[in-house]
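Field reference: sequence -> structure
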Amino acid sequence: MSSRLYKILLILGIVFVIIALLLFWLYWRQPENLEVDFLDVGQGDAILIKAPAGQNILIDGGPDKAVLKRLAENLPWWDKQIDLMILTHPHDDHVSGLIDVIKRYQVKEILYTGVIHHSPNFLAWLELIKNKKIKLTIIDRPQTVKLSQNCQLDIIYPQESFLGQEVENLNNTSLTFKLIYGQTKFLFTGDLEQLAEEKILASAVNLQADVLKVGHHGSDTSSSQAFLDKIQPQLAVISVGKDNDFGFPSLRVIKRLERLGAQILRTDQAGTIKLVSDGVKVELLK
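Structure field:
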């Protein structure tokens, strides 16, 4: 090998190493902000949380494989890990997409209430969890899940165990919790309806939140005035499919939110909605 060729290869090698280090620094830095992405999956719920300590948390998976496309759009191509999967309740528009997520991503742990349901998609999801030996934690009471020093999930509901129970209205088993980062708070309610809202109100828990994931896609069976009055959200996000068969969101719910002065964001109008918190304020990413 000539001296000139050796120098050229050496320079190219050094350049390659520098570029690799820069890319690593850009993409592997521990994030300082919290990002919450309300994924556009049609008529259903799927929410991706990118926590400040680097965890990926997925709440529900929507009705079909659309969640895979949205995850690919909102995570780096090499990031195939879901640190925590949360199923609020086992209706198909929340659980079906999670089947494909488990097949494509490495899921470390799952939170669920343990309520019984007999739909094929829910049973297939449970079978996958068993076959892949994923840690499944049953949530049967209020508790706190620490994500980092100043970021946590405060689980508000259920207040009693649904493990092994068949419940007539699965919406009212929805796992409900706050995501708290610094001074900012997000409230996730699944498809919780007014009967369960009343139980939460009776417990006198602090519901105040900057951001509300509006219950049951904006149905008027959810989001009672009393419940919203306790939350006082600045931003209200409705995950809903365009021209859906249910007439969601309800105009009554929209009016209640407007009277509170909340900014309403809808996935059927805006697509995926991305919110970022620095621990002091929440901003909408354009």
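Note: Helices lie at 3-28, 66-74, 92-104, 120-132, 194-202, 225-231, 251-259, 267-270.
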